[in-house]
Each structure stands twice: as C-alpha cells, then as structure tokens.
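[Solved] Which block belongs to which protein?

Original post:
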Amino acid sequence: MQLSELSFGSWITFGNQIDDGISRDLMVTAYDAGINFFDNAEVYADGRSEQIMGKIIKQLGWSRDTYIISSKAFFGAGGKLPTQKGLNRKHLVEACNDALRRLQVEYLDLYFCHRPDKNTPIEETVYTMHNLIQQGKILYWGTSEWSGVEIMEAHRVAAANHLIGPTMEQPQYNMLHRDKVEVEYHDIYRTLGLGTTIWSPLASGILTGKYSKGISKDFRLNLEELNWLKEKNVVEDKLRKADEIVALAHDLGCTSAQLSLAWCLKNPNVSTVILGASKPVQLAENLKCQSISPLLTEEVMQKIESILQNKPSLPPF
C-alpha cells in the first residue's frame, strides 16, 4: 500500500489544544496537498482525537479509497483497569471496535500495537491481529517503538503458524534520535521488509530552535503528559545542535523545520514522515520541505553530520 511521503497526525492537538474548526482546516490543508495518511491512536486525548478526526472526515465526504487511516492500541482511552489496556485479546478487540466507532469507518487501514506488552504472550497478540485482518476490521497491522528482537519474534510466530505478521513500525526518528531506525532495524529492512511511519521528526520542536531561549508557558512541552519528552530533549547539548541546524538552514534559504523534515525523507527506509501542527500556516510551511530536498547534497549532509556528531555505526557483520 502506497503512503504519501508526508502524512498528518493529530496526536495531542485534536481534542486537547485546538478547536474543531482549526482541526478541520488542518485536515483539509493536508489532504489538498496530497497527503493520504492520517495517524491516530486510542490514547490521544483519551479517544477524543479519533472522534474529532472521524467527524471531520464524515463532514468532508472524502471517498474512502482516497485516504489511509490508522489507530493504535496499548495505553487505553483513559480507563485505569487492567482490562482496559495492553495487547491481550480482550483489549485489542475492544479497542479496535471503539476506534472504528469513533473514526466512523468500517475498517482501519493500519493498526499498530502502540508498545510491546510484557504481560501478554506474543502468540496471543499475533493471533489476535491476524484474526482482526481476517474479520475485515483492519487491513495491515504493525508495531510502534518495538525492539528489533520483538518484531522478529512476532514474525517467527506468524511464520510458524501461517499467520499474517507485522508489516510496519512507527518509531521516533529525527536528527537527534537515530539508532533504532538506522541500526536496530537494519537487518529487518533487508530480510523481511518493513515500512516505517516515523513520529517526532522535529524532536518535539527542538529542531525548530524555538526552545533555545527556554520554554514559555504556552509551549506544549509544558503539558504534564509530555514531561518525559521535555526531560529527554530540552537539554543543553541538543539545544546547541538545534541552534547550529537553524543557522545552516538560514544559509540554505529554508527553515530548520524544513531542513529537518527533508533530512528524514532522505532516508530510504522511511516510508512516511508524520507531521503535526496546531495552525494551518505552520503545516503549509512544513509541507514545503519536499521542494528543498535537492539542497541536501553530499556536502550539506556532511555539514549536518559534523553538527550532530551522532552518526550510528552498523555492526561489522
């Protein structure tokens, strides 16, 4: 299945940070620009994100064969009971049905296991995802932030039992976070094939340079649910590198966001880069990253590496 190289994700903006009118404008801006993949999850705004996205798509009347929509299951939609989360058969089936209802669609194109579940046998998860495909509720299933070993184990179980295994992974990938995509999955691309729908291509906004002078009260990294990202990313070394990327982008005649997104697209193992935005003008500006790809010559890529100093090394075998 062919995804647009840029896609749009609602994450915590829909139903949380912006009103429904802006959400609609963002969806229209993305769709009119050729984006065909829209990413969501049960946990985003405790299910409200999916409700809003589903309502907008229904209002716009898009033909179902013109867009791809996803959901993810693991964290639940706000419930705290042990039966309301995880990758066990009960939750996966109920979460899928709930996502279909909230998004107002008959099937999900992509369905992700949002995190690995140490409490559920991998056999149970693989069987359940296979059965959801057989029932016509999902077309493809995949993983998000699983290790290479965990993905290979799912493929082993699928192959041994003639089941449909995972075909895509949604990892974090950006200039400051590279190892999993560039090294850990290297052999999986080569031996099994793996689509990647990468999230946080701007490192939670760090690569735009907007956090260089500190975090103001209205920045989203101040949200309680994003404290873990703030602790990992708002650190001196990463802020310094981001400032240098901003300067390089200025020299190239583009924004640091556009440069960072184009850098992600240059990786042949990246299937689609998920964009997030809270304003249509911001989304439209970032969509221009495709036009600056020719600027990423070997010389420019070497300049970027000299700034980042974090190029992962592949194992010698």
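(Second protein starts here: sequence line, then its structure tokens.)
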Amino acid sequence: MKKFLKALGLLMVLVFLFGVGYYFLNNEKLPEGNKGKEADALAIKMFNALNHEAFENTEVIEWDFRGTNHYKWYKQQNKVEVVLGEEKIILNLKNTSKSKASSPKLIQKAIDNFNNDSFWLVAPYKIFDKGTERAIVKYEGKDALLVTYTSGGSTPGDSYLWILNDKFFPVAYKMWTSIIPIGGVSATWSDWKTTEAGIKLPTKHKLSLFGLELDMGDVKAYNKEANKLADKILAAIKHEAYQKTKFIEWSFGGRRSFKWNKKENIVDVSWEDFRVNLYPQEIDKSTVYFEGEKQEDTDEKIVKRAWDIFNNDSFWLVAPHKLYDKGVIRNIVDVEGKDALKVTYTSGGTTPGDAYVWILDSTYVPKSYKIYLKNGRMNGTPATWEGWITTESGTLLPTNHSFSNGGQLSMGEVKAYN
C-alpha cells in the first residue's frame, strides 16, 4: 500500500511539473493594440467580408455543440429551443424570467451553455456588440483585430485576436479567457458552410490546446417567413406554369428581341444587324449571324455581348420567377408598414451582389421593386412591374416598367407557350 501511495504521489508531482512546464512554454501575454477609427475600419472590413447584413436578417439558426447540446435559435424573436440531454428548455433571451424549464437552475444552465456554444458559432458577427472594445494588433506582419468583451455574456473580460486573410475574412483567433488558464490558445475558423440564409457559419474548430476539436453538428440558417412570402409570390404569378413553359418571346425597349427555347436553354438574341444563337450554359456552341449570314469565325466579343444582353433583358421579364435561384438570399423587410421581400443575388448573372426589394399588391403579385446595385449606382431606385398578362402557357409575365424619372421600358409583345 505504501509503495502504491508513493507511486501515486510521484505521478501527481510529475503531472504538476508537466502542467507548470506546459504553462510557461505556451502561455502568451495579452497583446496591446491601437484603438480608435483604424481598428473600427478593420472591423467593418471583416463585417463586410462576412455579409453581416444577412446575419442580422436571419430568422432561424440550428446547430449542435459537441453532439450533446442542441439549439434552434429564433433570432428575430429572441427565443431559443435548447435541448441538454433529456431536458428541453425554452429560453427567452429578451426576458429570461419568461423562459420555461423544469427548474430555475436548468434555465441558468441553458443560458450559460447558450452563451458559450453560440459564441463558437457566431463570434465573428459579435465584434460590434455592446460592451466590446476593438484594437489593431500586428500579428506575423499583418493587421489582426483584438476584440475585448468588457461586459455581457457569461465571462466578461475575455479577449480574442482575430486572424484575417487577404480578403479580411476570419480564419482563426487566439484567446485570453477566464475559463482557459493559458493565454493565447488558438482555434481555427476555417471549416465554413454557406447556409440557405446566405451567412457563413463554422462546422468545427481545431484548438492548439492538446489538439482538441469542437464539432458544431449539422449547422443550418434559414428564413422561414421570407420563404413563405416568396412562395405566395410564386403562386400568384403561376410559377408552376412558368417552370413547364417551353418558349418565351419578348423585346426590350424596341431595341432588342428574343426567342428563348427555355426547355433546351437556347436563345435567339437579335439587335441591330446581329443575331446570335446563344447557348448560355455552353457558350462555345453559340453561333453569330450578321445581316442574316452565318459567320464562320465566331466573334467572342459579339457572343459575350449577347450573353450580357440576355442576362439583363430577361431579368426585367422573369425576375419574380427567380426567387429560389442558386445563390439567392431572401429576407422580409418593412416598407411603409407592409412586408416586402428583399432578394439578394450572391452569385450568377452579370452583377452578383445586387439586391431588389419586391413591393406587392394585395394578391402578392409584384407591383414594383427598389433596386440596390452593388456598385452603388442605384440605392433604392424604384421601378414598376405592370401590365401583367396571363400567357398561353398559363404563367404571368409583365409587359411594361415605369421609372421615377418618367421613363418607360416596354417588353413588347410578350408570349409564353408550349
């Protein structure tokens, strides 16, 4: 027995010495940085890289934490469904006294867990939270962002040094926190997922502390109410018939004309003396005609011109039917006390990043939209969607647009048929 206790004591001493050695070898002091406008400017660049606006408008976020804690966060309602083991708790983040659980202690446990576990999911979006301070720190020759939480959460006083890539997107951070005694422990923010709501969220983290890994589970973010509104719009304009439509014909301001074989996705684009038989998805197969004669040597510039024209001019005809295109973010916004649908195109087309706020009539048919171009040339510019007709194929398409400066844009004789 004495030999066992002696061996156990020796083992404890060795563990203690290892811990002390590890601490002195790995502990880093909290760096000092420069606060002020430059730090906030760097933080704004990080915000823009993250598409923070989409995060603010996100309705629901779901994730797990290390396979044990499960969350469904109704963000706009400030409510969270928390499952801890066999217990389910409904947290009211705005007024915790209205939270529901089998015991008050369980509510507090759920709050503490949510504060910790949600931070590992959305920390990059919290750098301007109330009670935060920001400073620029030089890290490996580049600007990094030091964020200190002076209040709020479960552990005020914690600091995080965000490491950014060349596009100001966060790829890792170093931590100085009350729950980790060693300063400067790093964690990756690299396994990102682009969610339906348009925001990027991490799926796991790897820590420098003993190679620990944190799994965030099946991460989801979506806008349930915005999707419901989009579905009402699509029903109103007979989108199901649009999906089945084989051919669409129209013109654009009397300057260009189109015949679109929608089923095969081949378009005849005509303007001035040119006609291009355009294959939008296989552009190399396109052919060019000049004054009615096929050109043996296809001019790539003319084909690209036809592609740009088709992307622009078809949008003015069928944009309401594109609410669920790949890379589209849908949000509900308030316009004069009524719900409107904001649609942001993050990819595809000629100018990804543009956004449109659809204003609807009482039947959910779009009557106008406000245009927000990424290049800043339009910032809320309105345009009507009017002269809707029910086509031969059964879908609804507009025939005219009006602008606030008095301008008109006719879509000509619009046809859709099978």
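Accepted answer:
You had them paired correctly. Confirming on the second one: The longest strand covers residues 132-139.
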